[in-house]
Design goal:
binds uridine-diphosphate-N-acetylglucosamine; 4-stranded mixed sheet; alpha+beta
């Protein structure tokens, strides 16, 4: 088990290039199952969720290779359509393979997925959407068994713009007869990246980025190389660290449009944020001001994945900030650990009211999920004194060596194995 040891309180300066997006590469890895030709992905983050997804692909007979930031998947001989429970439980995104497996093999079976503990995470929207395109689904004792050897395009109206359900249905529908239209689709940039990938390997998808996505079934797959988009949540994490610690930092290789909601909220703290040629420069010379209201919602609204990082930021702001979590029902779990560092707040249901303190103090804290863990880490580098962060394995699910990125900014943070 690894921990982070942090000696906090230093101003940050320097440049860091942001990694490829976790939430883009995971569905795209699943989509590789659809291709009978090898696929190369570049700008891949070195994170444990990717390793776990590759284990799932290996399990169904794909040949996978990973070196530096490149991953090659050859699904030409893939033949198994049953994911064992142990692999399904490792990550929520294991469920993404359902759609592509049904499309490729006409059947699939997997288990209710695992993933971070951030609240109730049902799969009804995935299931109902797949049923609409003629997939037979039987559920029992946590296992989901699907048959879909005659997929038929249909109109699919999502009750909520679920990211995962939109992606799963898109991937299944590429082999449905006729046209499938997803209404009230999620609009996240990662869905646009998935559409780009599906079209690159030979399918016909249009509309991603809007709330209506059309998929025309059929297509002949071919070899491709695809570059994964930059991670907007990692970008936001680094910017929050800059606001909390103060200093002058540059985050490079970002997609500015994808982080505009984050930049807009952080600007309210009084820092200067400028962008130029896919780089964002943040200068913060005094204690951040309060952010009156942050409300999470589906893209292009403020991302729920940034909520805990904004909580950390607001905990040192000059004034009182309010955060409303609208997407997940239990996403304030890490805040008890923030209290150990001196954060002052009250929480009722999905609303957090945070009264900023001038300085947090170092403490021994424990990460319990990915973004909450990153939020504790940036709080520790801003806090006065020493901190130990346990549960780094959660942070490793989505951050490609967070400690190295923060060290490039001059933070004192090291990983130790205990
Ligand atoms: C994805 C992201 C995750 C992010 C989330 C919301 C990946 C790998 N993960 O997760 O980082 O926090 O989007 O932006 O891309 N819901 C249902 N029924 C369903 C599916 C979802 O009720 O069948 C609800 C969920 O409980 C939640 C909301 O919809 O309240 C959003 O979930 P969803 O958009 O599906 O998130 P994920 O795809 O799991």
């Amino acid at each position: 088990m690894d921990v982070y040891k942090v000696d906090g309180g230093r101003r940050l300066s320097g440049e860091v290039s942001v990694q490829g997006a976790k939430n883009a590469i995971l569905p795209i890895l699943a989509a590789c199952i659809l291709s009978e030709k090898p696929v190369e992905l570049t700008n891949c983050p070195d994170i444990s969720d990717v390793d776990n997804m590759l284990s799932i692909l290996d399990c169904i007979g794909c040949r996978t290779q990973k070196f530096e930031d490149r991953v090659i998947v050859d699904a030409s001989d893939a033949n198994c359509c049953e994911i064992p429970q142990e692999l399904s439980k490792r990550l929520r995104s294991s469920f993404f393979v359902l759609g592509p497996m049904i499309a490729r093999f006409g059947k699939a079976s997997c288990w209710h997925p695992g993933g971070c503990e951030i609240g109730n995470r049902p799969i009804d929207l995935h299931i109902n959407g797949l049923k609409r395109i003629n997939v037979d689904i039987a559920e029992g004792f946590g296992q989901i068994k699907c048959r879909g050897d005659n997929l038929i395009g249909a109109d699919v109206h999502l009750d909520y713009p679920s990211v995962g359900a939109t992606e799963n249905i898109m991937m299944a529908a590429v082999r449905a007869e006729g046209v499938t239209v997803i209404y009230n689709a999620a609009r996240e940039p990662e869905i646009v990246d998935l559409q780009r990938f599906l079209n690159e390997i030979g399918f016909h998808v249009a509309g991603a980025g809007s709330s209506m996505i059309a998929i025309k079934g059929g297509g002949v797959t071919h070899e491709t190389t695809h570059r994964i988009i930059p991670d907007r949540i990692v970008t936001g994490t680094l910017l929050c660290a800059g606001v909390m610690c103060g200093g002058d930092i540059i985050v490079k290789e970002v997609e500015e449009n994808d982080v505009s909601a984050i930049v807009s909220k952080l600007s309210e703290t009084g820092c200067s944020i400028t962008s130029d040629h896919n780089s964002i420069r943040l200068r913060a010379n005094r204690r951040p001001g309060e952010i009156r209201l942050i409300e999470t919602s589906p893209y292009p609204g403020f991302p729920t994945d940034m909520q805990s990082l904004m909580f950390s930021t607001c905990s040192v702001a000059d004034g009182t900030s309010v955060i409303v979590e609208n997407v997940f029902d239990s996403r304030f779990k890490h805040v008890a650990e923030m209290a150990k560092m001196g954060a002052i707040y009250t929480i009722k249901d999905r609303i957090a009211v945070i009264r900023g303190v001038p300085k947090l103090t170092g403490a021994e804290v424990c990460a319990k999920e990915l973004r909450g863990g990153a939020a504790l880490t940036i709080a520790a580098i801003a806090a006065e004194g020493e901190s130990t962060i346990h549960g780094v394995e959660y942070i490793d699910r989505g951050y490609d060596k967070l400690e190295c990125m923060l060290r490039s900014f001059g933070a004192s943070i090291r990983r130790e194995t205990v």
